[in-house]
Amino acid sequence: MLNLSQLPPLSLYIHFPWCVQKCPYCDFNSHALKDRFPEKDYIHALLRDLEHHLPAIWGRSITSIFMGGGTPSLFSPEALDLLMVELRARLNLKPNIEITLEANPGTVEQGKFAEFKAIGINRLSIGVQSFNDYHLHSLGRIHHRQDAVRAAELAHDAGFDNFNLDLMFGLPQQNPEQALRDIHTAIDLEPTHISYYQLTIEPNTFFHRHPPSLPGDDRIWAMQEQGQAVLAERGFAQYEISAYAKPQRQSRHNLNYWQFGDYLGIGAGAHGKLSDAAKQTISRHWKHKHPQDYLKINENQSVLAGEKVLQEKDLILEFMMNALRLTAGVETALFSQHTGLPLERIADPLQQACDRGWLEVDDNLIRPSPQGQLFLNDLLEIFV
Fold first, then answer.
1. Do residues 105 and 195 share a domain?
2. Which of 141, 219, 310, 312 could anchor a disulfide with 215, C-beta 3.0 to 4.6 Å?
3. Is the pLDDT of residue 250 over 70?
4. pTM to 2 decimal places
5. Residues 222 and 336 placed together within one structural domain of the fold
């Protein structure tokens, strides 16, 4: 039996499943456009989806909204305006809420960012990946270097004072000097946040079936170390494994994930996690993945493709998987507050991890050591 004396913060994730084309490394629920997509029908499907969950979240405030994909920036400002109006009518949005939209530089038109800003979106996450045209082509991206630069400039012109640039390293045929040029170019465009992460080959992707030639481990390590050093010199503090931010510009939405907060997921293939004080349970839910199946859902059918109540072992592992990504760690009290379990449940594995030099624990904080960050998978094994 859990003891959920208070519920964690609640975020909203909205999934948009279409892209111009599927990137060879992508394992997200995204579908290449073959023709025009049913924009208005999808917005109405999102609202039906949301209505299903309203009884479970009644009275709770939404602390952040993240529109991800796929490519949300394919949707027109008019469609997203309708969505925002209806969200405000149904949900209690906190004042100064962070509302993020993912954008592909290849889908940004003149004035579109300004319209997104006007409807209440106040943060962008721009999927640059690289500023090198050869590497962009090898990744199957639809944009070029100049498109990426222009997207960042348009974000500034539209009045966005908070936006992220996504960058990858360890790309096919990439060397450390090229990776470093990408970092410098990104910083010069003055974002407030940079995500810098290694290309990984995921199952069920084109790259998994047809592996590209990637740099060796020594080169990849050099790219990571050199990139982190430059980011630190230029005022971007690393607060998570692959996330770097200017002061007070960390992604609030992602911080809620990593602190094991609650999040409602709507949209094709969206996942969510919700705590229930009345039932004293924490459950995960997920939606039908294919847009056609998702759009067929009507008022008489369940929007859920599946749901699972998390057991004690799930809660422990999932909390640690998220919390230990944060370089500063998490407050000790968050474990009990967000899992409903007493801290004593993990006393032994915490001690084991401390004995190995992978964790630093005191009365107020659970934090991975620098060595623990390097051996995160081994560290997590202790909590399985």
1. yes
2. 219
3. yes
4. 0.95
5. no
